[in-house]
Write a structure and sequence with these properties.
This protein has 586 residues and is α+β, with helices and mostly antiparallel strands. The chain has 28 helices and 9 strands.
Length: 586
């Protein structure tokens, strides 16, 4: 087998593994890197060159800059502004959600943007008697569209700039993406209002009046656990009297969770039962439990019920420490003092990003959980809001503004500008500690890019890039550069359905540049076509992390993404392809 064939085989296996949710994308990329070295198509230096790439360094530090904006409460203030501007108008709400998430997405990661605004959007939509599913998908799509507005909006933009520079061309400036990005955002708003939102109607919107909030009855119905809530009373003379909950060991023996005792929330393991104690239980195996313990079901007890403030829905983020671990492994109840009543999707004990859980406990514990945005997004009756610190907010805004100015004028290399901004976020107290700064970095994406860059090197070394470019230009070149550009756009969009947008951009940007050289034109329109196509991926919930994050909270099915996302992707593709030759002539 030739070296080029070996690289293509490794790429094919890597792509298949990327498409399988059970494998972490960063570990797949790392295994791919090792395979390329072991078969001898790259050297040690080439294998680890990605870790010294300016793109990788900039991306890591930009997560820190975004965290500084979030920690000062600026982003939460934007969510509060959203509430004031909507005035109970569905049209205004859709427009402002898309605009706000796009603007915030210019400067911080799209996953961070969704994590901040998702609780606000859910709470507001329920107050307006609108199903959250009408707005959460536009929120996720808007985050990706916002990334297309500036150089630092998303990883493919940075990769495009680096690819041009590494091939001897002038790099892209900060606002080169903005004109077409604005048209993309406007197109997205128009499409979602006239077409997309009508395909996202949910049947239970008419079945239940949910005007107040995401209330208890609605959550219990969604998670299908209402039938597992039972009331019992400890009769006089029962064997359980005087025994602690730890001694009884009901959770392990019968999968029983004690929700309340005598109106108390989540009694401690040392609590000793007394005669005529009234208990609210969550017990999927209640019949067997009653048979073995001798307790009997009683009608609902007045005042012994679940309150809105004591229940919340939580969504796992793409960088959560809980990923691929069970609740027992993370000691969730011991760590947070909260009980998990149910998880969606059901079946798999291991947790994946986008999974949702219904938790129950003290309101103060739910609020503490809401502050841990790196692991979970909390959706409760009152949307959690980061405390606003005016001084730190002003300093963070000044750092962000100065960074943008420096990136525009380019007095110093862009990576140095971003590094300075990241340090200033720490020195000014916008980020409270260095540990928080490190936790803010999405290391999965950083490792993914660093490990996939050698794949592009291997393709170039073995002639793989030239082979793909020759195939595209040979098949489409006779029809002109516009058709070749369209072919690159379609190819990138198809790849983006199965693997991450960053990995797609890494692989196809060198192909775009070489294809332009074969056709004899400027590489800019081809590079921009690949970049926009990589970012505008809406067809499946696994296309981007924001798509997966809103899936359960919006009560979406896989088909919902296809019927809403594919037409949007097609329309935006046409718009981009028509505008690119105007903004970046051949």
């Amino acid at each position: 087998m030739s070296d080029m064939a070996m690289v293509f085989l490794i790429l094919a296996v890597t792509t298949v593994c990327f498409a399988m949710p059970k494998f972490r994308s960063d570990l797949v990329a790392l295994c791919s890197l090792l395979a390329l070295y072991l078969v001898g198509v790259i050297t040690v230096g080439e294998a680890f060159a990605g870790f010294s790439s300016t793109v990788v360094v900039m991306l890591a530090v930009l997560f820190i800059v975004g965290e500084g904006i979030s920690q000062t409460g600026l982003a939460s203030k934007a969510g509060g502004l959203l509430v004031k501007l909507t005035s109970k108008s569905e049209l205004r709400m859709l427009v402002f959600v898309k605009l706000m998430v796009a603007v915030i997405g210019c400067f911080i990661s799209n996953t961070g943007t969704v994590a901040i605004l998702m609780p606000v959007v859910v709470s507001l939509s329920m107050k307006m008697n609108i199903h959250p599913g009408k707005l959460l998908m536009p929120l996720a799509f808007g985050a990706s569209m916002g990334g297309a507005l500036t150089l630092i909006g998303t990883a493919p933009n940075l990769l495009a700039r680096d690819a041009l520079i590494s091939h001897g061309f002038e790099g892209l400036s900060f606002f080169d993406f903005t004109p077409i990005g604005i048209v993309i955002v406007v197109t997205g708003i128009v499409y979602m209002w006239f077409f997309g939102r009508k395909m996202l109607d949910k049947p239970y919107e008419e079945k239940l009046n949910v005007a107040d909030t995401l209330n208890v009855s609605e959550l219990l119905r969604q998670y299908e656990i209402a039938d597992n809530l039972h009331y019992v009373i400890i009769p006089k003379g029962h064997d359980a009297i005087g025994k602690s909950l730890r001694e009884l060991n009901w959770p392990n023996l019968y999968d029983v969770t004690i929700i309340k005792i005598r109106k108390k929330i989540l009694a401690t393991p040392d609590y000793r039962l007394a005669a005529e104690d009234k208990l609210l239980l969550f017990a999927p195996t209640f019949t067997q439990f009653c048979k073995d313990t001798g307790l009997e079901l009683v009608p609902s007890v007045n005042g012994l019920c679940i309150q809105d403030a004591n229940i919340a829905e939580v969504i796992l983020t793409p960088r959560s420490n809980f990923l691929n671990r069970s609740l027992q492994e993370v000691h969730f109840r011991d760590k947070y003092g909260l009980t998990v009543l149910a998880k969606q999707p059901r079946g798999d004990e291991k947790m994946n990003y986008g999974d949702a859980m219904l938790v129950y406990g003290k309101a103060k514990d739910i609020k503490l959980l809401a502050q841990d945005k790196s692991d979970l997004v909390v959706i409760s009756q009152d949307a959690p809001e980061t405390a606003f610190d005016p001084l730190r907010a002003v300093l963070a805004s000044a750092v962000l503004f100065a960074m943008v100015v420096m990136l525009v004028v380019e007095w110093v290399p862009a990576v140095i500008t971003v590094l300075i901004a990241g340090l200033l976020m720490i020195f000014t107290g916008s980020i409270k500690s260095t540990e928080q700064a490190y936790r803010a970095v999405n290391w999965q994406i950083v490792i993914l890019i660093a490990c996939m860059l050698p794949m592009a090197t291997a393709l170039e070394n073995t002639g793989g890039v030239a082979f793909i470019a020759d195939s595209i230009t040979g098949a489409l070149g006779g029809a002109g550069p516009f058709v070749v550009m369209a072919g690159l756009y379609v190819t990138t969009s198809i790849f983006g359905v199965f693997i991450s947008n960053t990995a797609t951009a890494v692989l196809l940007l060198p192909v775009a540049i070489l294809s332009a050289q074969h056709v004899g034109i400027s590489p800019l329109p081809f590079v921009m076509a690949v970049t926009y196509a990589a970012s505008m991926s809406f067809a499946t919930p696994v296309s981007t992390p924001p798509n997966a994050m809103v899936m359960v909270a919006g009560n979406y099915r896989f088909l919902d993404y296809m019927k809403v996302g594919i037409p949007l992707q097609f329309i935006i593709g046409i718009v981009v392809l028509l505008l690119l030759p105007i903004m970046f002539p051949f």
